[in-house]
Amino acid sequence: MLMDIRTGSSTLSRFILAEQRHFPEATGDLTLILEQIAFAAKLIGREVNKAGIANIIGSVDSFNIHGEGQQKLDVFANSRMIQALDHLGLFCGMASEEEEHIIPIPDKYPKGKYLIVFDPLDGSSNIDVNVNIGTIFGIYKKINQHPGDANTADFLQKGRQLTCAGYIVYGSSTMFVYTTGRGVNGFTLDPTVGEFILSHRDIMLPDTGKIYSVNEGNFEKWTPEMQKYIVDLRSKMDKAYTARYIGSLVADFHRNLLKGGVFLYPEDKKNPKGKLRLLYEANPLAFITEQAGGRAVDGFNEILDIQPENIHQRVPLIIGSKNEVDMYMKYVGAGKNK
Ligand code: P6P
Fold first, then answer.
1. Which residue lies with its CA nearest to atom 16 of ligand 1?
2. Ligand 1: does its nearest atom lie under 6 Å from the Cβ of 122?
3. According to the model, what pLDDT value does residue 288 have?
4. What is the pLDDT of residue 1?
5. Using CA atoms, how far apart are residues 149 and 146, in angstroms rounded to an integer?
């Protein structure tokens, strides 16, 4: 029991150090990594907050691997995450949504046992309309502690192998939410002192929620089972579900994590494998969700049990309160068994 940790006054650093005492074998490496990610988040949050003024809205004339126009802030966030971590001597490789290939650690820096996958700025198409966006990350240890650089197999570990997962949401406030497998905790940035302060201790997802988050503009492209799930959800008079969809994964996920509910981005005729990425979107959020008592599936498998095949693969994602995800599996998972 972290007796000396108090919501509202404990900084992220103090909390991580207190947590570290529960792991006798801990070396402080993860503490340093999380503090560096938090530092990068402060820099990214500062640029996000002044984007409208500093004329860094809009896109650069470059495209990421997915053919999506890169926003200036995408590129900025990507470089800040890399620069915050690559010199620590704790990583042997990185993978980012913004980079086609695995990012090696420069030879001038020592290599470590960790590798990180991240989406440096998810939802960036929302930047110029001032909608909340976020950074998502997941940290693994390399397999069998082989020497040198991480290899592809290290990056294609199942989500259940994650050592740590988290996200930062840049909104009315900047929040840092993470788990190392001992529950989920949230920290809110106090900009007057530049510290993340513990604000949401031991976040638990309600078993059932009243919110469903999905882009209903895709209704005609969904499978019949998905269409029936949403129609039935809407008509459940005993529950009176409400629809909330921001179109920014971290923002939709964060609201549902705190209030309960289900987020869905299933496969459809336009995205037959779903739209969201397994490695650096679905897996970290699924790890957090299971730690908070929820469930995350692709309609057939638990997200964390999916064997990745490439670092940018897409996956259908249904994630949130257990009751609503279980219900989805009855509608759709069973359908796939037919
Ligand atoms: P749609 C943002 O572009 C994003 O990658 C996620 O943040 C978000 O959940 C999803 O796409 C929204 O996609 O097709 O509903 O606009």
1. 247
2. yes
3. 98
4. 45
5. 8
What's residue 7's pLDDT?
81
3-state secondary structure of 92: strand
Nearest-angstrom CA–CA distance, 117 and 119 = 7
Q: Full-prediction pTM beyond 0.85?
A: yes
CA 248 to ligand 1 center in whole angstroms: 6
264: closest CA among 304, 307, 296? 296
Contact 331, 225 (CB under 8 A): yes
Please tell me the distance between residue 25's alpha carbon and the centre of ligand 1 in angstroms. 40
Note the pLDDT of residue 67: 67
pLDDT at 50: 80
Residue nearest (by alpha carbon) to ligand 1 atom 1: 247
Instruction: Judge if the beta carbon of residue 97 lies within 6 A of ligand 1.
Output: no
183 lines ligand 1 (CB under 6 A): no
248, 263, 281: which to mutate for ligand 1, most atoms within 8 A of CB? Answer: 248
Block mean pLDDT (10 aa), the chain, length 338: 69 88 80 96 91 59 64 89 97 97 96 97 84 96 88 96 98 95 96 95 96 97 96 85 96 97 97 97 98 97 98 98 97 66
**Six-digit token string for 19:** 């947590």
* CATH number of this structure's domain 211-336, picked from the four choices 3.90.1150.10, 3.30.110.40, 3.40.190.80, 3.40.50.300: 3.40.190.80
Question: With respect to CATH, is domain 2-200 assigned 3.30.540.10?
Answer: yes
Rounded Cα distance, 181 and 282, in Å: 16
Strand 114-122 to 91-96 pairing = parallel
Give the residue extent of every domain in the chain.
2-200, 211-336
